[in-house]
Amino acid sequence: MADREGCRGLGGPRPGGRSARVQASVHRAARALLARMDRAEVTIPLIAQEAGVTPSTIYRRWGELNELLADVAVERLRPDMVPVETGSGRGDLLAWAEQYAEEMSSGLGREMIRDVLAAEGADGPRRCCGYARQQIDLIAGRAEARGEAFPDIDKVLDRVIAPILFRILFDEALATEQVAGLVDCAFAAVERRAA
Amino acid sequence: MADREGCRGLGGPRPGGRSARVQASVHRAARALLARMDRAEVTIPLIAQEAGVTPSTIYRRWGELNELLADVAVERLRPDMVPVETGSGRGDLLAWAEQYAEEMSSGLGREMIRDVLAAEGADGPRRCCGYARQQIDLIAGRAEARGEAFPDIDKVLDRVIAPILFRILFDEALATEQVAGLVDCAFAAVERRAA
């Protein structure tokens, strides 16, 4: 599990608590080391030194390096902005999905996906999927408020997010222009329903 | 790379050659160890002992354990049968995709996907995608020979394979019954084109 002390829900530890401060400092240290050295050279003792905590603090909370790096990657994947408003649900989804595809297929994005998937039994992949769900849900809510039809979130996951990640992991990343075709496909069900 | 000696195309080393015999024996040893001990306990020296080769033979050819296990997983994912014939392209695709979804979401399937993705810079993911492509291509060829419309292979990858793997990796594996909806979606483009 990403957190052995069991004190965190989706939102992280109680803000401002000791546990939250330790986590923030360890995450910061890990990000700093990842930025300045090769991933294969990063170790728990190095992260501990950089963060000013003992290695055992890290072992106790994260268990092993893979778990910690997965946790750091998941935090980086947590959305830090509300999807851009373009005036329509389809436009919002397209803008958001294009940005998502670009970020995920970048070097840093690929490294984060890799780290998230590398931690066995951790909840990182599910949390990442949850973040995408939240953003799509927000776009869907705005569309609904404007009286527009919008596809089910699971359809958007299967038809837009899944191919973006599948191509990055198993084939060649899609070009940004190809994302529009995926969004069309997600909306096709809605349109047939409405017709 | 999966093979440092550079002697293999998609089809593996020259059958019957020394290199092919070493590879077969190392793969067999790795599979045997994976079957009887925990994955975290498997090491290159143990595999070498089981295979009756020196550890340096393995290091020279595969570089490191992750690469070897990825190679073993890719070999296991190589299709060993022709897709079942049901009388229609849609039926063939559905039968094949249901089996694919079942195999990949099993414990062994998940472990193989994990191993394939864990080897940095290796061509394993692409080879796996290539195997799926080959099978779908075969089904498409049979459909075409019968004069049926069949979706582009890339559409099938995006609309059928991608959601199956995405759900396994990031969410909850789809139930077998849900695969039919994905196949319908892949055929939707064809039907609109034909209408």
UniProtKB/TrEMBL annotation, chains A, B:
GO terms for molecular function: DNA-binding transcription factor activity; transcription cis-regulatory region binding. The keyword Ion transport does not apply. Transmembrane segments: none annotated. It comes from the Bacteria. Residues 20-80 form the HTH tetR-type domain. Pfam families: TetR_C_11, TetR_N. Keywords: DNA-binding, Transcription, Transcription regulation. Residues 43-62 bind DNA. Residues 1-22 are annotated as: Disordered. InterPro entries: Homeodomain-like_sf, HTH-type_TetR-like_transc_reg, HTH_TetR, Tet_transcr_reg_TetR-rel_C_sf, TetR_C. PANTHER family: HTH-TYPE TRANSCRIPTIONAL REGULATOR RUTR, TETR-FAMILY TRANSCRIPTIONAL REGULATOR. This is TetR/AcrR family transcriptional regulator. It comes from Methylobacterium nonmethylotrophicum.
